[in-house]
Design goal:
This protein is of the alpha+beta class and 223 residues long. It is built from five helices and eleven strands. It has helices at residues 11-23, 45-50, 120-130, 156-167, 178-182; strands at 58-64, 67-74, 77-84, 87-93, 100-103, 106-107, 137-140, 148-153, 184-192, 199-210, 213-222. It has an eleven-stranded antiparallel beta sheet with strand order 6-5-4-3-2-1-11-10-9-8-7.
Length: 223
């Protein structure tokens, strides 16, 4: 089925819903952070991202409102399970089986979620690929966790390429108009312990201005 460019706006909310089911949401209020510069000497962003791309298995949590999913990953391989809306969700991916999705033990069509299931490794790899075009902004966390952080805004010219990787070849990225592309913004935040430089949290916010208004979503990995 051919999708006209003017009709693309309603596909993005659908994608965002799948995106959040796969990796989970933080509440909208938790995204707001102070833009004040950290007092301690910040750790370099490449050094923080390197922690996510090492050849070792790591545990992580993802949040969806008041629900939590737990899992482990190494590179693109991962397992993730928990309870969503009263149903048991189990998702996994390995080299032999790209994506396996089970709800209450029943196998689901994995085509609904393949490109929403990026691991922290894959997000770090994407960030590395555009890091030369990003000016990291040090930010401080006013919540009392004593973490330091960076805000990284993906340049507009890189946004479409990232969407193409997330949504895959079946989505008509070529039909996105320049006007619609300019209305898409993607920001990451990296949060780490200032004393040790250990990365503790990776957040992402996506915002889109569409004919139906502003659509926004976010995900949070706790490491």
């Amino acid at each position: 089925m051919y999708i006209r460019p003017k009709q693309l706006w309603w596909l993005f909310p659908i994608f965002l819903g799948l995106f959040c089911l796969g990796m989970a949401l933080g509440s909208a209020g938790e995204w707001s952070r102070s833009a004040s510069v950290t007092k301690q000497e910040p750790y370099p962003v490449p050094q923080l991202l390197e922690q996510l791309t090492q050849d070792e298995e790591r545990a992580f949590l993802v949040y969806m409102h008041d629900q939590v999913l737990s899992g482990r990953y190494v590179h693109e391989k991962f397992t993730l399970d928990g309870e969503i809306g009263g149903h048991k969700l189990a998702i996994s991916r390995n080299h032999e089986q790209p994506v396996s999705v089970r709800i209450d033990g029943q196998v689901q069509d994995h085509a609904a979620l393949p490109y929403a299931l990026f691991t922290p490794y894959e997000h770090a790899t994407l960030l590395k690929s555009v890091l030369s075009s990003i000016s990291p902004e040090p930010v401080a966390d006013p919540s009392g966790s004593d973490w330091s952080g960076y805000r990284l805004a993906v340049p507009p010219e890189k946004v479409t390429a990232l969407l193409a990787m997330w949504l895959g070849p079946s989505f008509p990225i070529a039909d996105i108009t320049p006007e619609l592309a300019r209305g898409i913004s993607i920001e990451y935040q990296l949060w780490y312990e200032p004393d040790t430089g250990t990365l503790r949290q990776l957040e992402l916010q996506m915002q889109m201005r569409t004919a139906a208004g502003v659509k926004q979503d976010q995900l949070r990995f706790r490491l």
